[in-house]
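Let's study my pick:
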Amino acid sequence: MLLLRKIFFVICLCVSVLCLTTGYGITGNWIGVAIALATGFVWLFARKYPSSGLPFVCLAGSVCLAVVGRLAGSPPLLMICGSGFALCVMDIIFLEELYVSKII
């Protein structure tokens, strides 16, 4: 069961980052691409320290990236999927934290 959650975490994180970077890449905003990639790496730290406020910061950053990308002219479907899968990543992080705290 834990392996399945890790697989879903990786898939959702990759889809979220891929959607955001593709959206920014289409508009030619390379700084947005770099920030979206950096957000993906910060999500990995959020998974390691879920009890900190980092998952909320990552979610807020991903949603803000999606909003700014949409205002910059990125396709809406990519931005909606990017922020939606970021929400899935945060849910998986908190699901793992809940599961680990119940076992211990």
Observations:
- The chain has four helices and no strands.
- Helices lie at 2-27, 30-48, 54-71, 76-103.
- The chain has a mean pLDDT of 92.
- The radius of gyration is 14 Å.
